[in-house]
Each structure stands twice: as C-alpha cells, then as structure tokens.
Write a structure and sequence with these properties.
This protein has 630 residues and is an alpha+beta fold. Among the domains are: 222 residues, Glutamine Phosphoribosylpyrophosphate, subunit 1, domain 1, CATH 3.60.20; 218 residues, 3-Layer(aba) Sandwich (Rossmann fold), CATH 3.40.50.620. It is built from 27 helices and 17 strands. Helix 6 runs antiparallel to helix 20, helix 11 packs across helix 19 and helix 14 runs antiparallel to helix 15. The longest helix has 27 residues. The chain starts with a strand and ends with a helix.
Length: 630
C-alpha cells in the first residue's frame, strides 16, 4: 500500500523538485520508503518521472518501486495489492518471464508485456497503477474494479500528471487551485464529489473499473469492468446459495490474509464485520485474530457491546477504546487536512480514530465494507419498498404531511424516529433512482438555489441519471438501486472515507466483500433473497446462521455515526458560528448569508434538525480555509 505520483512533459524535462514535493505530500500513505524514476531527456521524446512512497506489506526488503521489466522498457508504480499474484506469477514464469522481486504488483508489469491494457482483467485486487511504456511513449493508468484505491489526474496536450490524492497534484506549479462550481453543486447534493469530477477545475478522478491511456497529448479512457445482474429465476435452493456464498466469501477472506506484516479486523459488531471475523476463525486460530473496536460515551451511538459480544464468542484478541466527545472534536483539524476534497460523511472522524488506534498494533486491517451495498443492507432499501405503496396526492404530501412531520419534537439521537420520518417524506415523491439520493444527501436542487449566491451551476443529479442508463437491462428496479449505490455512495463516500482515514495512519484496509469474483456471484442471486419482505441481508444472514450469535444476526443497521446535531448546539457552537459568520460568508461570496443564517438559527433554537445541511457547509468551509484561502 503506497502513494504514487508522476509527471510527463512533452516540451522539456520533468521538474524533479516538483515531483519530489508531490511524492512527499503523500508521505502518510507510505512512510517506509521514498524512490523515483526519471527517463532520459531526449529531443523528440516525452520526459517521464514517477514518485513513490511505500508502506511495506509484501516482500518487505525487495518490493521497491518504481520497478521495471527485464529490459527497462516498462516502468511501474502501483498503490494496492494483487491478491492472486502467486497464481499469476506461476503462469508468467512458465511462459518465460523473469521476476526481480517477490512483490505482488510486479505481475502487472509482465502481464502488460503480454496483453497491454488488457492486463488488468486478470488481476484480482485493489489497485491504482501507472505504467510508462518507454518504446511506445505511452502512459497507461488503471484503477481496480470497485474503486478501492484512488487515482487523480490532470491532462493537457503537452503535460500529464497523476497522484493518489489531489494534494500531490497541487504541489506542481502548473496545477491551479480553481474551484469548479459544478463540482461544488454536486458536493452539496451528494456530500462528496462523485467521479470523474473533482472540486478543483481541470483535475479529474479516474473512475473505478476504467483504464486511461495518454499518448501524443491525447487521452483515452475505457471501461474494462462493470456490475452485471443475471435476471430471471434461480434454480438453486436457498441452502445451496447460502453455502456457496459462505465458501466464496471465505476464499475472499483467505486471499486477504496474505501479508508479511501483522493484520487484524475492524469489528463494529454488525453482521458484515462479524462475518469476516467468523470466516477468519475458520482459517486461523481465533486467539491469533486481533479485533479492534471503538465505543462512544453517547449511548445511542455506541456499538462497542456488540463488537465485544462477537469477540468473546470467538475468543479473539480484542482491543477496544471508548472515545469521549472532546477527542472526536479535537480531530477536526487533522481530518480537514487529509481530506483534500470537501467531504461531509461525519463517520470519517471515528473511522480515522479507529484506524489510528488499530495502527498501534497492526499494519493491515480487514473490514466489512461492501456488505450493505451488495445485500441491500441500508434502511433505504426497505424504505423503497414502503415508498411503492405510498400514494398521496402531491398537494396533500407537500402542504399537509410534510409540515405536520416538521412539528414532531426534534431528537438528537442516532437515526431517531422523527429524523427517519422526515427523511422518508422528503424523498417519497421522487422517482426511485433519485429517491435514495434525496434521502441520504443534503441539498436538493431547489434548496441549492436558495443557498448559493450564484445559482448558475446547479446539479440536477445528472450523474445518477446518466449512470442509470448504463445499468444492465436485465436488472430489476431494486437491482438498479444496488448498481447506483455501488457507483456513487460506495465508491466515492464509503471507500474514500476508509482509504483517507486509514492511509492517514499508514494503515492498509482490505475489504473481502469487494472481491470482484464474489461481487459477481452475489449479483447472480435473486434480489428477493437479499431483501426478503423488509428483512435486509436475508441470504447473508442465512449463510452465517450457525456462525454468529442470534442477537448479532437480528441487529438492524446502525451506522458509524457521531452526535453532530447535539454538538452544533453545544461543543461545536462557537466554531460553527465563527466558520459560518457573516463576515466570512460575505467575503467568500459562495453562499447566500441570510439563507445560511436561517439554517443555523433553526438548528440552534431546536426548531429543526439541520445537522446534515450544516455539517455539509461546515466541512466545505473547513476545506476551503485549508486549500483555497491563500
């Protein structure tokens, strides 16, 4: 696991000092080593430079990058892991390839020699890779199928640069810091900036499952993998499906136990992370499994007792830390610093603290990410079922029911009844593919028009509508929602959160549920076995029925939340009023101050729960102060 960056120049040599600054901006991703490759500057040839920061996981002494093939005509930097590298290496050696290291990512170099851009189709892993082809003067970039590892780039006809994080690109003098208004609108809608967009104008994210080729100043992006759904009935019995599911997931766990450094598990006590622990216990003695959990003083947000229950059930080497509110608040400056795009998922803070706690003991941690998306585990999936039967005239819905719901007393508890009811009514009238985003997002287009000082760049969920067109025709309505969850919320929220929070601590996070072969199998299961009536994750829970305690299997989705609504009225009140002060907002010129002041006053007076909207603007302002205020 590492940080990678690079520069290509068509009209002169690579700025070596700029490349070193770019690599050093990624120090947190790879504190173990720093190394570079620079091509010879020759007339008529493109100059290339790669920078690399290493977190040593496999082949601790020999897996140094940038690395080349046998004759030095290909150079590679790669952030991530290739889990099936041993199988791939055996076949490559039989076909005459010679390896210089025991490092897993060297297999990509030799696969590229044989098949070119098709090489990624054989790799099972999480990766963001760059290969410079000296002879063809071509740069090849690739990102893993589900988007676990990030990759940003900036392209012009004479220059190309890339990096694991935006902060690396910003170190180059040719990369301007200009806010992209369209991406700001997307952030306000989604609470993150969806791929391929970036908050900085001129910078882009390479989408998951895509490759990029840059040659002679021309950029070509191609998709090499996408989610598919089988459609139609399944002749297998529930028992057969459950058994195969468990065995396939266990194999995905086994592959992710390959490491030359200590590893453990993020354990929340939910079904997904508990399943990972259960399957690990079939592969190695439970006493050797290190599990990590954090709890909160606020009872409605605390899940530590469930994690403790699973740890005791299996007898793992359990580590737990109970966090006080002050510790979470003190982390805000650090979190704002490593989030180089605005990001409003507040669970990034406890994720960061869990990663920091875990890193004291191990270098790699497995987690349950992906289970909710694959098995319809979010509360929004049953809510979608309920919304199908919600048939109210629009006037009654907007003028009577929603105003009545707003009269309910405001609660600051996690997923309180009033919060869920108000959210349900907020999105019930929207078409299914947009309804989820209205439920989980912050500002719908109409609200943005009232919030933004300049309303010329309002996003109307066009990314979702365009992505929905690419969903396989065989997919049902609910499978299309799974598709969109994976393409948006999982890729650009959940996986970004885990990557940034863990890598800020030099900790590698692995997700067995997102093994692409397992994902393909799960997508072949009829949706009715994922959400059965209103029972979420039905087939996963059946597969683990004799492996987990009944109370763990019966738990509803909780989420890794923090008490933002309460904090804004207490511990964060002064900072909120300062960050969103009239002087700052009017000087900045992005938001309409009266509209923002109304949101603040309503929340502080307890009239409305505006936690999501306020946190989204609050985190944008913290990001703006760090990255745009010069």
């Amino acid at each position: 696991m590492c940080g990678i960056t690079g520069i290509l120049e068509a009209n002169g040599p690579v700025d070596r000092e700029a490349l070193r600054r770019m690599a050093n901006a990624l120090y947190h991703r790879g504190p173990d080593d720093e190394s570079y490759y620079f091509s010879e500057a020759r007339e008529g040839h493109i100059s290339a430079g790669f920078g690399f920061r290493r977190l040593a996981i496999i082949d601790l002494s020999g897996g140094r990058q940038p690395m080349s093939n046998e004759d030095g005509t290909l150079w590679l930097v790669c952030n991530g892991e290739i889990y099936n590298y041993q199988e791939l290496r055996q076949g490559l050696e039989q076909r005459g390839h010679h390896f210089r290291t025991n490092c897993d990512v060297e297999t990509l170099l030799h696969l590229y020699e044989e098949t070119g851009p098709e090489c990624v189709k054989q790799a099972n892993g999480m990766f963001a890779a760059a290969i410079w082809d000296v002879r063809k003067q071509t740069l090849f970039l690739a990102r893993d199928r589900l988007g676990k590892k990030p990759l940003y780039y900036r392209a012009t006809p004479t220059q190309f640069m890339f990096g694991s994080e935006v902060k690396a690109l910003l170190q180059h003098p040719a990369c301007p810091r200009e806010l992209d208004p369209r991406s700001l609108s997307k952030y306000l809608a989604y609470e993150y900036v969806p791929s391929p967009h970036c908050i900085f104008k001129g910078i882009h994210k390479l989408p998951a499952g895509h490759t990029l080729t840059w040659q002679s100043g021309q950029t070509r992006i191609q998709q090499y993998w996408d989610l598919k759904f089988s459609g139609g009935p399944d002749r297998r019995s529930e028992g057969e499906i459950a058994e195969e599911l468990r065995e396939r997931l266990k194999e995905a766990v086994r592959l992710r136990l390959i490491s030359d450094v200590p590893l453990g598990v993020f354990l929340s006590g939910g079904v997904d992370s508990s399943t990972v622990v259960a399957l690990m216990a079939e592969l190695r003695p439970a006493a050797q499994i290190k599990t990590f959990a954090i709890g909160f003083e606020e009872s409605s947000f605390d899940e530590s007792r469930y994690a403790r229950r699973v740890a005791e059930f299996y007898g793992t080497d359990h580590h737990e830390d109970i966090l006080q509110g002050r510790a979470l608040l003190d982390m805000l400056p650090e979190v704002a610093a490593f989030l180089d795009e605005p990001f409003a998922d507040a669970s990034v803070i406890p994720t960061y603290l869990l990663s920091r706690f875990t890193r004291k003991h191990v270098t790699v941690a497995l987690g349950g990410d992906g289970g909710d998306e694959l098995f319809a585990g979010y509360p929004t999936f049953p809510a979608q079922q309920a919304a199908r039967f919600y048939r109210m005239p629009r006037a009654l819905h907007e003028r009577v029911l929603r105003p009545l719901a707003e009269l309910l007393p405001v609660s600051h508890e996690n997923f309180s009844l009033d919060f869920k009811l108000k959210r349900f009514l907020r999105g019930a009238g929207w078409r299914p593919e947009l309804r989820d985003q209205v439920w989980i997002g912050s500002f719908i287009p109409e609200e943005q028009r009232g919030l933004l000082a300049n309303t010329g760049e309002i996003d109307g969920y066009d990314d979702i509508l365009n992505a929905e067109k690419n969903c396989p025709a065989a997919a049902s309505t609910m499978e299309r929602l799974i598709y969109l969850y994976c393409k948006f919320y999982m890729q650009d929220d959940i996986l970004v959160k885990v990557d940034r929070a863990s890598m800020a601590c030099a900790l590698e996070a692995r997700a067995p549920f997102l093994d692409y072969t397992f994902v393909e199998f799960v997508n072949s299961i009829p949706f009715g076995l994922k959400l059965k009536g209103f029972k979420t994750k039905y087939i996963l829970k059946r597969a683990m029925a004799d492996k987990l305690p009944p109370d763990i299997l019966a738990r509803g989705k909780k989420g890794f939340g923090i008490p933002i609504a309460k904090w804004f009225r207490n511990e964060l009140r002064e900072l909120l009023l300062d960050i969103l002060s009239e002087r700052r907002i009017r000087q900045q010129g992005i938001f309409d101050y009266p509209a923002l002041a109304r949101l603040v006053n309503e929340h502080l007076q307890g009239v409305k729960d505006n936690r999501k909207q306020l946190w989204t603007v609050f985190m944008f302002q913290l990001w703006f102060e760090k990255y745009m205020r010069r």
